[in-house]
């Protein structure tokens, strides 16, 4: 097994302060490795980075069209949103259209990352609900599929028809038998794969065609939905949203907990997957920027890039304290 | 240079998800290495873990006694507090007793980590001020010393008498010439040293005597102040506070940004310093617990320990999702 390689460094006062190592693979539509760092065979949990894979059965089954889901809703099904008003309103409306409500969700509640909504809750003395959960869009997709399949309410259980369909789709597009699963923060199963397998699945999405078979068409539509509605995939100020806008909606990208990041690049028919070994999100954001710049689809000088790569760190008085950049030998 | 070693692992669904590497040294009163992992010579920024070193001139100069500082104030001078009411009230009173106010601080403002105080500010439509800065106690100490020395107001500048005294004390107790400095989040200079140097300084504190010379007595008093007032050093729910209580106030410990942690163990006349390479705080907290358990001064079964080591990770619905524990070969 190849060791992870240094990918991102934090410097302060001319000295190296912290280092992040990781694995990354750029894959082509045939599943071949275009370029790799660290160990392509390293087994990882994709966490939220694979939400577009988890949404494939929603479209392939016909459930999305039967429910009349919009492109914005498809983007939300692939989202780790920050519980801002645009997200909570959209999920509330979606559930209502299904004849369901917040209590049908199985994702749990947490304080939203959006500070406006957080402050609104505090001022109104309200507790956050499951709709604020960053995964509530994915779960609305699961509910839509469960209803279409006339399956039971416990849609996050491993043997539920929804999760069985997700696992089948996941293993087919990664082209690997998953070595196991964990339970995600939102209670859904999360299937493990190699970094190569995850990159391969992203290349499948990149090469997908509107005129293809049901799976290819599903992947095509999900990619376009994410790229067209970046604000639904994360939220204002967040990496996924800002970087998809910076790439003029031509590339779909997605972060996952514990520092996973993926990219789908239709124009190049390429997919990227990376994992920072220690789970540090600042490093996965910097590393995906570096790879997207390397492939010529992201402008290194764009403010959304510079916020995350070659980032000058400033303290509470605005003084420059350090800089975050790629490690020598990585991009 | 020896590579950092795996110290802390996060497991999910029976698979390794994330790994943190680091360097650690346990040092005796003679400056010798009792035990080490990774590279004792690795250069690090101690960040806030060295606040008790930065407070030495405050006591040695006579400034603390001239100002009549209490033991709680000495603990606050070594603190990274969370801006709770007990901290902000204490700093406000301290500044008032100096005939100074919030505007004399040079640490900058940030939202307090204490959620009660954060919510109070939101409900009152108030902005946080410099007193909320986690370093405002250290800065009150700097101001106390600056006034005693009749030095100017820009006490965080490198050539100010306060910082010159800090640098001299820092280099003498680490027994190293600092290879450089960076600017900390609170705008004060932060001097680099080796992990061994930082551990050596902690062993000096551990062996310090009330009946010793001015420096030894200063180190003795600061250690006792931290251990006696753990709630002033961090705050409710925080690692430093909970673990010092768990050790019955017999050990002083301190965290620093970018995953540094130190411990002063008077009963063993030993000091510990560790740095997690990637800057991940969850790992520095787990690693210091493991080392304190190893030295027999912390109970592995105490809830404060179990919250940070062998920690079962639970999701928003309370389901077990993973576990954080030490890596094989580390403690």
From TrEMBL, chains A, B:
This chain's source organism reads Fertoeibacter niger
Q: What is this protein called?
A: Asparaginase
